[in-house]
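[job 4471] stage=fold_predict status=RUNNING
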Amino acid sequence: MRFEQGDSGMSFGYKAAGANAVDATGRLDTVEFINIAKDDALAWPKQARRAYPSTVNARMQSTITPFVRKSLEINNTLLDVLNDRLGLPAGTLLAKHPMEEYSGCEARVIRNPPVGQASVDPERLAIGSHTDFGSLSFLHNRLGGLQVLVPGSESWQYVKPLPGHAICNLGDAMALFSGGILRSNL
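[job 4471] inference complete, writing structure tokens
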């Protein structure tokens, strides 16, 4: 497939539903998505990392690039707050996220069929349990479905989306940058 993520080690590109196992039994996921590299959104109309389908390119200038720019502003504000609360020298966390360097930062658009749809087994998972690999992840979700494993609990809890709000997850990189004071959630 032309725009598939492939095996290059980066997650930019398209992932079809059923491409990944979600648990140890080998059950396949139900979600499809496309990941757009921050570097491509900021370099538009030049290509920095890879090519995308025409549906993405048609929305890059009007929607994707402005969304990525605003997301980076919010990301940097939160990095400053975390930096201050961790008592780090000013700019320490921001220095680990230089805008001019290529990174694994991406915007992801997810499509998952509604549970109860005839073609979807209600026992199938959209995405298996995981931690996010980056510093901060933002989920803009209107429909719900995100679950987290609260520390000290053995049951998954749904995170209710609120209109006009995003859910922010700390990722594995932030756990490393904070020396383990902050933890990525499962």
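[job 4471] summary: The chain has a mean pLDDT of 90.
[job 4471] exit 0
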